[in-house]
Specification:
By secondary structure, the protein is an alpha/beta fold. The protein contains four helices and seven strands.
Length: 151
């Protein structure tokens, strides 16, 4: 069994929460939507606290400071080659800027968020605390659509 097979088997066995009444909101057309990115690359600004192992909080990403972001992902299995070749692999703000200029999306959010991707199986803090807080922060700045970039 390969390492990939072992990881796939582990992930397949993890419990998945079920919600009695899942919420769904119909967003505006993309050409009118404000779009944000939520990544699991543990990105943070140098003056922010980094991420500790298993930490389930998030960091606010200011797109005007994108050039100074620090990768805080602590998994030795995280392949950094894509990120080194093009930062847009984990935080595609340049692509969103282009889409806004072309009118494909309404605008790019002034706020983006980053979580640590390597988590235990419960993620209870994200489900019950930091996830709802992240959603509230994005709603507060008028985000309609979130692009998830899991790494």
């Amino acid at each position: 069994m390969t390492a990939d097979d072992t990881l796939a088997a582990h992930l397949a066995a993890l419990p998945v929460p079920e919600f009695a009444v899942p919420l769904f909101v119909t967003p505006p057309p993309l050409s009118e939507a404000t779009v944000a990115v939520v990544t699991t690359a543990a990105l943070h600004h140098p003056d922010d606290d980094g991420f500790g192992p298993g930490e389930q909080t998030f960091r606010r990403i200011d797109p005007t400071r994108r050039g100074e972001l620090v990768l805080g992902h602590n998994s030795p299995n995280f392949d950094r080659s894509g990120l080194l070749a093009d930062f847009n692999v984990v935080l595609p703000l340049d692509r969103l800027d282009e889409m806004a200029t072309e009118g494909v999306i309404g605008r790019v959010s002034p706020l983006h968020l980053s979580f640590l991707g390597s988590q235990d199986e419960t993620m209870s803090t994200i489900r019950l605390d930091s996830g709802p807080a992240a959603a509230a922060a994005l709603r507060q700045v008028g985000v309609d659509v979130v692009l998830l970039t899991p790494v």
